[in-house]
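Entry 14. Ran structure prediction on the chain below.
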Amino acid sequence: MGELFDVGTLSRYDMSSGTYHQLQRDHIRFEEKYTEKFGNGFICRILINYMCYAQENFLEQFESDVVSRFVNVKYDDYIKDDRISLTKKLIEKISEFDFSINTAFKKRVVITYLLEQFTQLPLSEREKVYCYHQYMSIIQAMDKKELLIVKQLTGKEYEVKPFDIRIDENTLSYYLIGYSRLKGSESDFESHSFKLSRIKECRSKHKETKLSYAEIKTIKEINDKFGSAYIARNLVKKDIEKTIVRLTKNGYENLYLRIVSHQRPIPITSPKQISLNGDDYYDLTFDCSYQHIRNYFFSFGSEAEIISPLLLREMFINDYKRSLERYQSD
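Output, structure tokens:
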């Protein structure tokens, strides 16, 4: 073990191209920036947090996996251009675990194994690993019924009365849902949700807070109807009128049903097929937030038309006007 975690040396981390590209996608998804190569901080954060997240589970299978998959691996099949320094914090975390005393283990095997295990997790669990300490702070605050201080990537800070942390069915990401207000504000708390990977820091204010029966009832209704990603401030169920979207045959049969699956809203009634001027169309009725409809159907362009409500129709018209103006500008 001493050779594997020598503080004074650079230690390669080897990975398949699939693992590399998944980490690259996650780097953009979680850090919201693009680089060709990952920095020390990104990889070390994943490694340290993954060991915290999966202490018991991965240790049970680690030795047998390494023996069967990595001891005689041909590293020619792996990407070789990247290196990390084994930071003190990472070395201390790895040294907490007795991985194995098997003398057949090669240098870098543990790091390679951990990175590949991480990339095999579902998206929501990779997000939880990347934001492990924020996630645990939220869980602890909810257990103790304490007020949270949440700092977003934008730098804005909020006081939050937490209700729950859930995976949104549309985005497959974790969201902290509850009632919030800007830190230091004397305004009322309003319903709100925070995407976990957009929370930069999260800590308990160590001040007891309780949600009233009415607050709990309202946020449950909003969450059940709109989903955790679309909980807006002061939003209640009756604020959202049903939406009718008219799709061309191609828009319905190809874009909606086959291709654009991410964040796809589900109609509340069977699609109604109609014919206009000899062309076939499908009217779909939704009972979800306007923002959900905008996020999903805007990219459909001329293959989709908002029939009602008029407010949402005007939003689309204005969105497309702004896009057209950009293309027409010099």
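Residues 310-328 form the longest helix (19 residues). Will compare against last week's run tomorrow.
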